[in-house]
Amino acid sequence: MATALNQQQQLKNEATKMAMRVPLFYGNEKEDTMNIKDFITRFESACNAMGLGNDAEKCNLFGSYLRGCAMAMWMNAAYEGVEVHNWRRVKEHFMIRYRGKTETTTFCHQLPKLVQDKTETVSDFAERCITEMQKFLDTMPLPANGFFTAAYLALPAGDRTQARSAERRIMINCLSTGCFLMGVTTAIRTTLMQHHPATLSEAIQEAMSLELVKKTNEAAKKKIASLANLDDEDLVEIEDLDDVTIKAINLKRAKSGRQPFRQTSQFAGSKGKGGKGKSSGDKSAAKCRLCQKEGHMQQECYSRINKNTPCVDRYGKPIASSA
């Protein structure tokens, strides 16, 4: 019976290796495809995927991925006082030996630098905060048994592991939320703090909404800036200009000392806006800038519409929002 169970476990381990594609770790730069941090992260992801929560099984599986110097270190771990059935101790042992551990003092100096980059999205920054907090907690040693109550120490090992995992998740959430709120861009942080998000998830969702609004506003500003640089005869070609957009265009023009755009200008008559040109029913004086034919403007040009191309200015460049 024991032999059958061992064979089943071996098959399970081999299947896991193939499914998760965890590389072997040799402990030297020539043969390893990743550093110890990335290797352990990949290994833990594989364990989570297969629902492996037992420390002893996880440690044994970890040993099966080691080769060369790393395997020798694993074989000698017990002689060095490492609890080889305690995954946290095993992981810490390998992280220290292969210089993958982040020292607590070093991390504290780096913490103020945890801010959102200009090219980084809110979502990516949140993931970075969580990753850094996980690294930070990994550097913290477990408290001595005297710190815990007798009732806690009397719990089965599995229950204690589960309780520590739950506490760790709570700490990561709290620390990540604080770092995220303090490190997100100033344009988002002020409004985000006023909403008082209770959890990291709420903070991320709210920040993503604010980020979308910010991007929309920036796109609108770029559009107004582009339209404000056009000449009046180009602007009159755009039919979807509303009063709000025209007002924004004129505010932009005023800052650069340009005359405001008015739809009742001399160019508007050809489109029936009530200017000095022909009336709305007479388009004989109009000439299409695209096909060079008289009797219509390029906004109504069938050739342009059929090709789904935008209107162009006097230099042949596409006019924004004219398609």
Description:
With 323 residues, this protein is an all-alpha fold. It folds into 3 domains: 2-101, no CATH class; 125-141 and 149-219, no CATH class; 229-307, no CATH class. It contains 14 helices and no strands. It has helices spanning 2-20, 36-49, 55-64, 68-76, 87-97, 104-110, 122-139, 150-153, 157-183, 186-194, 200-228, 232-235, 243-255, 302-307. Helix 7 crosses helix 9 (157-183). The longest helix is centred in the middle third of the chain and has 29 residues, at 200-228. The relative contact order is 0.05. The model is unreliable at 265-281 (pLDDT under 50).
Write a compact overview of the structure shown.
This protein is mostly helical and 323 residues long. It is 56% helix and 0% strand.
**DSSP strand content:** under 5%
Helix and strand succession? Answer: HHHHHHHHHHHHHH
Question: What low-confidence regions span 5 or more consecutive residues with pLDDT below 50?
Answer: 265-281
Number of helices: 14
Strand count: 0
* Terminal residue distance: 75 Å
Question: Layout of SSEs?
Answer:
Layout: H1 2-20, H2 36-49, H3 55-64, H4 68-76, H5 87-97, H6 104-110, H7 122-139, H8 150-153, H9 157-183, H10 186-194, H11 200-228, H12 232-235, H13 243-255, H14 302-307
